[in-house]
User: Fold these one by one.
Assistant:
Number 1:
Amino acid sequence: MPSTTPQLRTLDHPDRAEIRLEGVLHALSDPARLQVVHYLAGAGESSCSAIDLAVSKSTSTHHFRVLREAGVIRQVYRGTAKMNRLRREDLDALFPGLLDCVLRAYETRCVQRT
C-alpha cells in the first residue's frame, strides 16, 4: 500500500563545525555567487528564481550548490521552490567580520562601476 504522507525533500548542509574558511572563500570568489550573497544580505530570504543572475539555469544551480556546500547559505524547499538564506550567524561566529567586509567590498566595486 503506497504511503499517503508526502516525502519531504531535504538538502545536505555542513554543520557549523564543518564549515571551513577555504571553502567559504572559494564560494565567495565568484562574481555571480557574490551577487547572490549580496542579494540575500538585503532580502533575508529569497527563492533562487528571484535572484536575477546573468547565467544559464544549470550554472545558477551550480552557484547555489557551491554556496550551500560551503556553508554560506541554507536552502530549504517550500513547495517546489528552493528558499535561500545566508547563514550569517554561523559565519559571523566562525569568521567575525568576514561577511561584512566582503559585502562592503562588493558594494564599493558595484558603486565604482556605475
Number 2:
Amino acid sequence: MEYTRLGETGLEVSRLCLGCMNFGTDQPWMVHDREQAHAVIDRALELGITFFDTANVYSHGESEEILGTVLADADRDRSELVVATKVYGPMHEGPNGEGLSRKHVLEQADASLERLGTDYIDLYQIHRWDDETPIEETLSAFDRLVETGKVRYVGASTMPAWKFMKALHAADVDNYERFVSMQCEYNLVDRHEEANVLPLCADQDVGVIPWSPLAGGFLTGKYERDEDRDSGRAATDEFMQKRFTEENWAVLERVRDVADAHDATPAQVSLAWLLHQDTVDAPIVGPRTIDHLEDNIGALEIDLSHRDLERLAEPITPVWNPDIGDV
C-alpha cells in the first residue's frame, strides 16, 4: 500500500479509501450479509488500507455500525486509522431531521460516534450543501466539534465551486475550521468536476477523494454495449442508466485496450488513471467482495504512460452541468 497526505494537512491516508456505502440493507444491490461485509473490511486492513469512508445516512446508520464493529475488533492501532463520515441527509421524520443546522450537526456527530464505537471522527464531512442554513452556522458547529475533540478535520462533498469557495472564504474571515478535503464524483466517464471544483481544490490545496471512481461499475467492463440490462443496479438506477452513452462506450473501449497492453483489468486501469491525476489523493473504492477489493489494489502497480493518459481522456470534453445527478 502507498500513503499520501490529505491536501495540505499532515494527515496520512492510504492511496485508496474503502467506501462503505455498499454495506447495509437499504438497496437490493448492497451487501446484506454482515459477515461478508466484515470480511471485506478485514481484508482491506490486511492490505494496508487505513482510510475508511461512510455516512450516517447509508442504510440509516447500518454502514457506520458495521464499520465500527470491525474496526473495534481489528488488531490495528486506532491512531493509524482515518475514519470519515458525513452529515446532512434525513435521519428521522419531522423537524430538524436533516440538514446542516447547528442542532442537527451536533446531534448527528454524537450519533455517528456511538455507531462507529469511537471517541473521535478523523474527517467529518458535509454530505451536501444546505441552502436553508447559513454556512457560518454550519462552520461554527464544526468548529465546536473540533474544539471538543470529537472531530479532527472537516471536509465537504459534491457542490458547485462557487458555494465551496464561499465556505472557504467564510472560514478564513471568521477563523473557523477550514474544509481540508472535497469528495466529488470523478472518473474517466464522469469528468464534469474538471470544469467545476477540481481547479479550485488545486488552487486552495484542498485534498480530493473521488467517489464512484469506477462509474458505478461501468468502468469495470462488466457491461456490454448491446446486452439487455433488465436486472441489477443498471436496471433500477436512473443515474446508472445515464452512463450508457456513445462517448462513454468509446472511453471503455480505450480502457480495455490499455488494460490488455498492461496485462491488467479495466478496473485497475480506470483507478490507475485517477491515481495519476495530480489533484487526486485517494479514490474511494466500493468493492462488494474480497476479489473485487484485491483487484482494485492492483491499480497501485500500474504505471500509465503519458500517451496512455491522453488516449484514455481524449473521448470526453469535461463540461460542468449543475443539474447532474448524484448519490
